[in-house]
Give the backbone structure.
Amino acid sequence: MVLVDPWHVLMAIYVILNIAAFAMYGIDKNRAVRVERRISESSLLSVSLVGAFGAAAGMRVFRHKTRKPLFKLVYLFLALNIAVIVLISTGPII
């Protein structure tokens, strides 16, 4: 019987969410260039909350949504993601 570590499962999900965020920014940029139906800004920001590394990378790589003031939130989400990762990795405080 193989036991799966729950932290490895959570890390895998987190990586997948970041890849999805990166892909969504690339897809939306492609659709913008082709003047096709776009991914809503609320969807992009929602995925950015949990996949901030992928979203920030997607914004830079695809040069997409970088001028929109609302998308400065992605960098706040990134800081929050980093803070949570640091808190989780350092273990219990008390």
